[in-house]
Amino acid sequence: MSNTSWFNKDEFKKNIISNCKSLFRKNIDEADKQQLFQSVAYAVKEIIIDRWIATQKEYAKQDKKTVYYMSMEFLMGRALGNNMINLMAYDEMKEVLEELGMDINVIEDQEPDAALGNGGLGRLAACFLDSLATLEYPAYGCGIRYKYGMFKQEIKDGYQVEVPDNWLKDGNPFEIKRSEYPTVVKFGGYVRSYRDEKTGRDMFVQEDYRAVTAIPYDVPVVGYGVNTVNTLRIWDAEPVDTFNLSSFDKGDYQKAVEEENLAKNIVEVLYPNDNHYAGKELRLKQQYFFVSASVQRAIAQYKERHDDVRKLYEKVTFQLNDTHPTVAVAELMRILMDEEGLEWDEAWDVTTKTVAYTNHTIMAEALEKWPIELFSRLLPRIYQIVEEINRRFVEEIKAKYPGNQDKIRKMAIIYDGQVKMANLAICAGYSVNGVAKLHTEILEKQELKDFYEMMPEKFNNKTNGITQRRFLLHANPLLAAWITDKIGDGWITDLTQLKKLKVYVDDAKCQQELMQIKYKNKVRLAKYIKEHNGIDVDPNSIFDVQVKRLHEYKRQLLNILHVMYLYNEVKKNPDMDIKPRTFIFGAKAAAGYKIAKQTIKLINSVADVINNDASINGKIKVVFIENYRVSNGEIIFAAADVSEQISTASKEASGTGNMKFMLNGAMTLGTMDGANVEIVQEVGIENAVIFGLSSDEVIRYENEGGYDPMEIFNNDQNIREVLMELINGKYSPDDTERFRDIYNSLLNNQGGRRADTYFILKDFRSYADAQKIINERYSDEKAWAKSMMLNIASAGKFSSDRTIEEYVHDIWKLEKVHIPDVK
Ligand code: GPQ
């Protein structure tokens, strides 16, 4: 591993000063904070650039296989601090900034999050890029340079208000516009076919289309402790030929205006839906736009060095991050046949050895299904190809299951007037993976059972992971330093080494040190909450945290209903023995998700009542942290005592927040869902608190048509009391109807939707019991500290380094490319 002898303090300092001059015509004592951030960022980029050049040169030279990770989302967060960390120069750079009179935290705080993603799926893509670079694998991230990323959330009067995220306002110092790679993407029109007399081949040409030019922007992805700098390539859209605008030909003028609008709209904004498909035409345009551009470029690059496109799969693999980029299958077929002149069978052979698919959910409402009318109008040639893929696939199904119409209904790619993207991805992909053991099992046994029976060899599991560089080394410097002091710094690139901490779990001094670090991180979070929410919280209370997207299946409602119940209990028994608890929430709701938004209002309303009730002596506090995102997440994970992972069993494919909390020493309070199952397996059931229905039980109830929540309502007084408080004005004195929808969703079947779809009331008692156990365990400080240490020591499996090595070994078959020192 490299050291930091390459780092030249004076040069770095000089660069910051000269950047400030040339960018802003200012000395650093005259510049504002944003300008200082820019000046520092450009100085860091200067160092990155040489390694970036060296990496791409070495890749060209060695010509090893490359993975293209295709994703609609890359939730990168901030780059500056992470780049400093991965260059292994954080402390040195911090020193330089100090000498220049700057506080590194203040400088880092000026950078807007690159929030080109919704939640777990997008953040996973970002962690994967970090691991790929650190492990020295040739890789590209391929995505969209949204002008507006995930909206900023403001809380006004307890309600979520969405504010546009103009993240590029001050420019992005790390990106590089690659004007030399303009790539045309075509939409609409019709397909003209003819026979080429010379070759005798049928030819297909898209006519009367609307086109945009895709322009790539490259963002460096710095590997930790290596010279590798990979590329996140995100595409912007520009009108094809502005020249035409001056044309007086009416048809051309009309077309030029349309193309200008198409270009403007296509990359305007990230769709803010998590685990939910909305079926919007513009979304399909976004998908084809970045997929077509990425596949075209990948093939062009391949052809610079190779002349037989039939062997593409030897050098290129496309990983589809969920079904969002699945048009890649047909786009690759189109290029291979229409542009490279391959026959169908040859093109299919290449495609099915090049494309692989990751599934991230079993939630039915997330499944992408495009109406044929829309799909074929927007992508006429692509639709023809999908039709032919489907025709052949249905023949295969018929041959294997003669007379079994049910198999066709379930597996056909085109059925019932819709194009089913998951079916296309599975049919064409050479690998299909889930993201946690339980999730993959459910795919194989339930959701994708027919596919699994027909092609079991494609299916495999890749349990998710997170990068310890961002979520421990950067997010929690105190804990990182403590760990390094105990076991050395090998854990930074080999997280399994954390298990060496196990020898310290009974050491009283170590326990105290760990509690002290947690306390300091809680003070840091308390300060953040005070500054951003104006609420005082007590760092001596238990920090009980649920941060993630707001979704019914994630059951923030269960959490807040329990808080309401606990509040009632404390009011009834003022002497009740409870450790003071701060319930911390953070969550964005999709803009059109009504019941999710009501839940945010409910949390804030409960917070208002409880936080202002002096009679409970601050035993319970409730805080809703505004605008939860990657950057404040880093502060939050470091400060958590309890990690709420309470999704309805079977619904959370994996979860990755659960891993970030564990790595920072929080105890998991959760259901046996997603990767929680593996967390418990690693740390031992005694070091987590598990409750609720199992996934088998949930699935059984669902197959039987649900359960009867009225029975619980009628028989459990405490639950009934809490539910009545939703509609008696206790938390909505000005409008008793405000939370009626939530109340109804728990108790009434409504238009095909079962009452309490997510088993909140069914799991309530067992959750309340689990919360009691947390209370008891925390009272024994030593036992708690031991558990905390065991959680950290057992988190080794959950590094995205491990996940990536599995993808590389089982799916991608990449080889490392070592980048020699630059200077
Ligand atoms: N996930 Cl389908 C998302 O964040 N957004 C999505 O649209 C879909 C899945 C999540 C999933 O809910 C989590 O359980 C996973 O941990 C995460 O993807 C990464 O696999």
Automatic annotation (TrEMBL):
Classification via SUPFAM superfamilies: UDP-Glycosyltransferase/glycogen phosphorylase
EC supergroup of this enzyme: transferase
Domain of life: Bacteria
Keywords attached to this entry: Carbohydrate metabolism, Glycosyltransferase, Pyridoxal phosphate, Transferase
Keyword Transferase appears in the UniProt entry: yes
EC numbers on record: 2.4.1.1
Molecular function, one GO term: 1,4-alpha-oligoglucan phosphorylase activity
Coiled coil segments of this chain: none
Catalyzed reactions per annotation: [(1->4)-alpha-D-glucosyl](n) + phosphate = [(1->4)-alpha-D-glucosyl](n-1) + alpha-D-glucose 1-phosphate
Family as reported in the entry's similarity comment: Belongs to the glycogen phosphorylase family.
Function comment: Phosphorylase is an important allosteric enzyme in carbohydrate metabolism. Enzymes from different sources differ in their regulatory mechanisms and in their natural substrates. However, all known phosphorylases share catalytic and structural properties.
Protein name: Alpha-1,4 glucan phosphorylase
